[in-house]
Amino acid sequence: MRPDLRIQQAVLLSDNRTIRVLARTPELDVPEAERIAVLYGPRPAGVACPLAHFACPFGAAHVAVVRVEDRPGGFLGFRFLILSQELYRYLGDPFAIADRYPPNWLASGPLPELTWPEELLPERTLEQLDAVLKAGDTGLLLAATQVLVDGNRVLLRRGEPDEAFARGVWLLLPERTRRDLWPASFAFSEELGFHLALGPTLPTPTNDPIQPLTEEAIRDYPSSPYELNLQIAIETGDRQALRRLLARRTSDEAIRLGLSILAFSLIVAVVFRFVL
User: Fold this and answer.
1) pTM: predicted TM-score of the whole model, two decimal places
2) Which residues contact 170 (CB under 8 A, 6 or more apart)?
3) Range list of β-strands (E), 60-116
4) Distances from the Cα of 131 to the Cαs of 69, 106, 162, 225, in angstroms?
5) Which helix (H) or strand (E) holds 135?
6) Beta strands 52-58 and 62-71: pairing type?
7) Burial group, residue 130, by CB count within 10 angstroms (0-12, 13-18, 19+)
8) pLDDT digits (tens, 9 = 90+) for 209-249
């Protein structure tokens, strides 16, 4: 089914006390945008945010892709792009979505509705992923990727945004895994349920069934097939293997497929028993 290609947008300003909506498309859910800006967390004193991105659910049927950055006067600016869940899952990369539509921080009043072109995002290349591993902390990037593939969360303490790390992990994840995860290259709270987040004061929650791992635990995380095969494919230049890995099923999909095969086998066995 063709996804809804329409994208709503908004520009908000926050000073840790109030949230102001400067500009928005007419149908945008203002209370929901304000709620997300509040749950992003109060900025700690002395912490700068030159550029960050995050994605999270927006109401029951949409996803917010948000760019955050310092604005004059000590304000924090939020640029919202609101997509249908179907379109977000179809694209899967909030960083590429945000890059497609640069913000106009001087906007005020009504904003036009945007439309995503009828096209896929460009395929990730071996050269891109090789550059990610060579430029970054290879061990931490690969381990964090495997942690997310295995269904765990990654919350790292950082004093400033780390766009390169967050974007790097997102490039290394399988397509189907990243459709259901929420990243933040910088955040002041984990209240929005990020699966991958970096921030100065991110707490470790005690009531979450999926506990985040500390950086030490991530670095010591046991090597697993996806991480190892991904590194081998990149280092040996095996483009076909890389394509297969990036198109890899999630564990939930694998379980559902296995149950479907088992159910089908049982039905066939019953049918043959009665026939014979």
Assistant:
1) 0.87
2) 93, 94, 95, 178, 183, 196
3) 62-71, 75-84, 109-110, 114-115
4) 26, 35, 16, 21
5) helix 126-135
6) antiparallel
7) middle
8) 667 888 999 999 998 999 999 999 999 999 999 999 999 86
